[in-house]
Amino acid sequence: MSKKQSFITGALVLGVSGVAAKALGIFFRWPVTMLIGDEGIGIYQLSYPIYMFIIGIMSGFPVAISSMVSQRVAVGNRFGAYRVFRISLYILALLGFFSSLILYFGAPHIIRALRWGKEAYYSLAAVAFAPAFVAIMNCYRGYFQGLQMMTLPAISQIVEQLGRVVIGVSLTYYFLPLGVGFGAAGASLGAGAGAILGCSILIFGFLRDKNDLIPSEKNSKESVVKVIKIILFTAFPISLGMTVNSVMSLIDSIVVPGQLLSAGFSSKIATELYGQLAGKAHVLINVPLTLSTALSISLVPAISEVRALKSFERVKKRSESAFKAAVILGLPSTVGLFLLSDPVLHLVFPGKSEGALILQILSASIIFIIIAQTMVSILQGCGKVFTPVKNIALGSLIKFIVCYILTGMPAINIKGAAISSVIGHMVAALLSYRDAAKCAYFSFDIDKMLLRPMLSAIVMGIGVYFTYHKFIAYTGSNGLSTITSVIIGIIVYIIMIVLTGCVSLKDIVNYIKERKQRK
Predict the structure, then answer these.
(1) In this structure, are residues 379 and 307 in contact, taking their beta carbons and an 8 Å threshold?
(2) Taking the domains of the chain in order of start, what are their residue ranges?
(3) Average pLDDT, rounded, for the chain
(4) Transmembrane ranges (predicted)?
């Protein structure tokens, strides 16, 4: 049995594996898109948001299990901890099994109701097997994390994504001769294959160390009903938040294909346009969002810690610093992708680079998504679990209305979905900012928090624009010109945020001191 790891070591292990898994997930789309094109990735992306919605429902359970297990282990009740795991395993196994059944047998009805092309059936049916294994995997991960044994969950996370990439891409290539719908189904099967591999790693580790993991003494007096209640009440708000977060993508898969058909587009063209939105633009938007994930993850305990100590001035300072960091991260990403949308698509998807205007529009959402993520973390750190859910739900409702109206207009079509995403995320960000400012007592300094970062991003944008056009004129190489302009942009932006006082040497020293104190 692996020894219990320290908090810092465990967090580092999970953090590194999480970033690696996310990177693999983003990389997965590239070979699949190159194999099956816009129509194929559009078919794949139709079913994927439904799958992610179901996974979102289960996402609160690992956190709940981990928390309950660690609490019982801390007071010497190891059998109680194991009992939490065992009861959770029954709950999640049933939830996963019935989710897979509903998804598989409900696939024809979902496709008819949402007016998807018949080729989408194979992709939706193929992904239906994954929830059953993801549910079981989540339970084992929660148990190991509660015991502070982070290595095995981290390995399983990477193995899951590796399996998804290798098997998913291989099956896409294998099934493609049968038709683009079967190729998309091969990609969808990768999710189930990855889940089986990740789950197998955890079960193998559990069976290998079962003598240590299953305590012999039976000293827990908690009733089964009580344990179930605690699990559900702990998991529910987290699952609700994750489910609402996936609704934005789900709205596109529900609304866009049908509205494009109503606007006069053929099923093939509608699927291709949807593929450009969901399979290309959204994937590229997610790349800078990986930077904000670390900020969001570290912010919840940082705010919780100082709030518990009733150090409200430190809550204010940390929240203001987090907001400024969100703006400093978000603005250059928005400006950079807006200016380089076409070159980036040509670089990443050579020969299949359609969708630059969609990416340009959608790039405006990056700043709002990063701000929203940061504000949600502040609210969660302040104990306001349901407030961000309400804000994201309202943003999603507005997105739905705008998407439905604009996407059905022939002149706007798929661009309406991108515009609605920007508006929806903007609403969620503004509402979350308002609520976070109230509970964390921080104020908005327009000069330091917006104008200076904005000036830095504009100067960076000018540098990027001229660098790209000068290099492409001299070299004729889009790849070299794009990479060079990105590097120049990063250098110019760093210089500008220092010159304008967005970031100072004092800020860096204070940050290092705070990190040392928290350790």
Answers:
(1) no
(2) 1-222
(3) 86
(4) 7-28, 48-69, 89-108, 120-140, 152-176, 182-207, 227-251, 283-304, 325-345, 357-379, 391-412, 418-437, 449-468, 480-509
